[in-house]
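RETRY 2/3 - previous attempt timed out on the joint model. Re-submitting the same 1240-residue input unchanged.
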Amino acid sequence: MRNFMGSVNVRQILLPIGQMAIFITGAGAVCSGVMLVLALLFRGSGADHILQATQGVGILTYTLNSLPQVLIDGVTIGFVYAAIALGYTMVYGILQFINFAHSEIFAIGAFCGVESLIALNGLGALAKASAMGSFMYLGLALIIGMAAAGGMAVLVERVAYRPLRSSPTLIALISAIGVSFALQDVIRLAESMTSGQFYRVIPTFGNFDEHITLFQIGSTVIDIQVKSVVVILAAVIMLVALNYLVGSTKVGKAIRAVSQDKHTAALMGINVNAMISLTFLVGGSLGGAAGVLYALKFTRIDPFVGFMPGIKAFAAAVLGGIGNLTGALLGGMVLGMIESFAGAYLGTYTMGTFGAEYKDMVAFLILILVIVFRPNGLLGEQISQKA
Amino acid sequence: MKESLKSRFQDFLVFLDRGRTPYFVSIGLIILGFALVYLSPRSIPGFLVFVFAASSIYWLKMNKAVQLGLAVFLAVVLVPILGARNVFYLEVIFQIAVFSALALGLNIVVGFSGLLNFGYMAFYAVGAYLWAFFGSQQPYLLHSTVTTKALNTPFFLAPDYFYLFIFLGVIVAAILGLILGLPVLRVRGDYLAVITLAFGEIVRQLANNLDKPLNFTNGPQGITPIQRPTMPEGVLNLFNQVIQPVVGHRVTDNQAYNILFYLIALLVVIAVIVITYRLDDSKVGRAWTAIREDELSAGAMGINANKLKLGAFAVGASFAGAMGVLFAASRTFVSPETFTFLQSVGVLTMVILGGIGSITGVIVGATVVTLLNIQVLQSFSLYLSQLRQSEAVIPIIGFHWKNLSNQLDPTKYQRLIFGIVLVIMMIYRPAGLLPAARRKRELGGNPEDKDLEEKGA
Amino acid sequence: MRKPISIFAPTIAALVLLLAAGCDKENKTIKIATQSPLSGAMSVIGSDIKNGTQLGIEQLSEPLTKMGFKVELAPFDDQGNPDTGVANAKNIVSDPAVFGVVGHYNSGVQIPSSEEYHAAGLCNVSPANTNPKVTERGYLEVNRVCGRDDVQGAVGAQFAKSKNIKTAYVLHDKTAYGQGIAEYFKKEAEAQGMKVVGFAGTEEKANFDAILSPIIAAKPECIYFGGMFDQAAVLYKQARQKGFKGMCLSDDGFDSPDASKIAGDALMQGAGTYFSTVAGPAAFYPDTAKFVADFKAKFGNAPQPFAAQSFDCTAILLKAIENATNANGGKLPARADVAKAVRALQNFKGVTGTYTFNAKGDPSVGKYFIIQVTSPDPAQWASNKIDQTLSIAPPK
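RETRY 2/3 succeeded.
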């Protein structure tokens, strides 16, 4: 036992958790700070008067009251983005190319996970499951989703990317777009063959929909849904595990070596193709797990479900500094927060002139600004000329 | 077997280019294609023969003047006649022209100067909304919402301002290109992809959201009606006098507009092609290539990379702006649904599929993708759907078409086919259908020869 | 210069393959074309517009078949994109065998495409385009069996008023359809003295957390959603989970059993879930019930919103073609005669209602039902309760 513990580098587990804590508090604190300053500035404005008239609270109180809930929502979606972003960033790190089909890999994971839950539900297993049992079933769905998505990612790499490895990245990019189109319709075909419809709804089971009350401010109850906790916990475990895999194992070392220099790595006796396949397997299965979590949180999935989260996760990966694992986490967190804040407060602060419909736009605008002023992302290193 | 096939094919090619043969072949093809389409206006093979014949003018070795004459005759006389007989083909050709111009514009950014752009539709949208706003009643409806009736509101500008707005579209889109270009100076590679993607999304969402506080774009409802330039009374009559006996029926106002827009699109495309050729061959074009290949070394050679990158963005954008104005007028309707990310990807696909950096290649790419998208795949699935409604049986296995599951309806899976075509193309022809000379060398070997070998084997 | 010719080898091969595709020269064929998004995210609804038409042709073409004609379906994928829609429209128009078009789903595609139908005199009956502009142009060729945004939004607001709702939060899906309905709901609600405490659009399909924060804070008695069930049901479910207790109200895009598959119990909670529609619940209308059963048997899924309307569009077109053919002495009529015959139909009974078109192409009296969802079980969707029935003529 001691021997085993000795080989596990505890630091490698604690470090990313610490980083996460810093990122979440950091991003949360910055966003909240900005919001509070705005709330102070907006005191006495038209928005303030409207709030006073309709809800009987001033803009500062309003903001303070809703802030914790908005933060929790932001963190949850941030973790989902981060989990998807990891897939983009891993592939980018090793091949320097944008795996456009990752959003479909995500969808495949979601579908396989949800299908297995639907099957279990059909057998009546879900309805009878205890609290512990329902977590077991969710775990099973996660594993199935991860296996399917990881397998598909490896297959896609083998069929559509490997033959193009020596070509310019643009060529591989178009191939990826082709794969993305094809996979969407493959999912659609497979799903509609079985029931005529190509979208699925995750069955309701366990106590995932229940709320845990965290604390109370005045009359406002701040609570969090069980499934949000599940999403966050699962994402944290995945992130830590991935960090450990890449940072502290022999395989991880090999992957890093391949991403730095394929030829030299090959000379060192590393099987480059195997490492690239492994990267796709890991990235894909993370995407698949994110898909199942996404389905759990947001109920309904269709073959095109991956598109928007995919784009945002990609943006998150770039925001954090693409190719950088911690960066993906930070990027996802920042993007999730911005979205959540913009959605919640834009309408109120502008008196309905610019409503929640601008939330994606605000997220994209901030993305542009960040990249312009930090061209290599928040945590990125100077990328080489040829990239 | 392999050798003989290959050599026989090459002999054939040599024969095609010898002496007067190309003239006969080309004219023969054109007559054949024209006759096919004229006699059976709905035949798709006939139309493809016609397209093939048109391209043969370019491929075969002929006197430049003859080539030009044939091309002009084909474009200005034959196509409108066929178009009046079957509006669909005119639409196909019109869209090919529009997308060629878009793809050529994107080619300057992506192909010549190597800057990835995922938000190209934004410039198209700006052009379209420019004329949609000024060419409709919208400026008088700034304070209206969906629920207010806009009856009897006059149009803001006279319809013939349209021609001026084609140029304004160029200018406005170019300015926007410069604005988007500014962040480009600082970022590179995939970061650029994200910035342009975000930019494209922002423009689309602005179009979708700017119906309040002031109603500029009418939001998701879109702007309609948008004016078309006036059709001079005499022209239509004159046109009808000449063409009615050939077409077999009177050309209606609507058909005349189709032809008019086709001709305008043709003019714009020709202008775009000329500009692109001149640029490609100029100091600027070579500087772009230098930046694409190695920015540091290019800088060392005294090339001002920043200025040139901005230039590339502006020029590329301006083509899309012009086409946007044309699009708005020809559709008389503009809504944000046209300018999605997928459309930007579609144009990018045309560029890369056709042959990045190669002008002919890009046009071929635009043609192939447009044909696939609105004609070939559609008619293929229509054909299958017809089979399913008939008594037809697949011979050997004795399978009745009508027993085919409803879920396997081919109409629904066009994108699947398109996706697979893309992947196969990229694997077997990575440099595109007609690669630029430089790309071909870069990718090593001669893809042509490899292709032939595979066929022979 | 010479080498590229090799690429034409496959092209020629493709030509040969396609030769058959272009050759159809039977003049005993009548085609009904459909245009709807069959690929992409909107294809959930789009495919069922096609399927509804297909079912209509199979069940209702007998009178024409007896006259010796063969009625065929020609499905087109407009991809929800005006460019493709217009190109398809021109393709359809140029096929003389096509006598009617059922479509589109997106008003943004219908409006430019119908310019082509209008120019060619080809009759278009739309199952789903509720945008007022569709018929405001007054084209003889353009009709619809669905309601109008301006009427339906107002119906929703009047219903809310009758339930003593005082404050409403209005959301829409940022499409021409949803936004239109939502705007008219807001207008009528304010005219009725209700307070609209918020108005916002969202393209979000899954994560409504951010949007719900201000809604929950504003404590409205009713959330009105203009758009389709796939968004609305998810939104309502998340709203309930965040503690929303008021009424959920939506439009005819909500009329799908899958809404309760998505939201389940959430639809029963609080002050309940209601939606307005022109099609009555199947259990009370034997024709509708038969349609739903046939549709399920043939395609394996419950019909999505607008599938039944597509079936009716087809029925109307087939009837009009039949009438026009009879008037023409059993020979195929001119397209314009079909368009006129559609307008001449009086009280045509379809599965979603009884139709007579006015001079613009709107159904002359729109009958709207407000339906309350009564069970979280998707299988019970057909037995939902009619809460109110309103008959409203479209604006002149």
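Chain C has a mean pLDDT of 85. Closing ticket.
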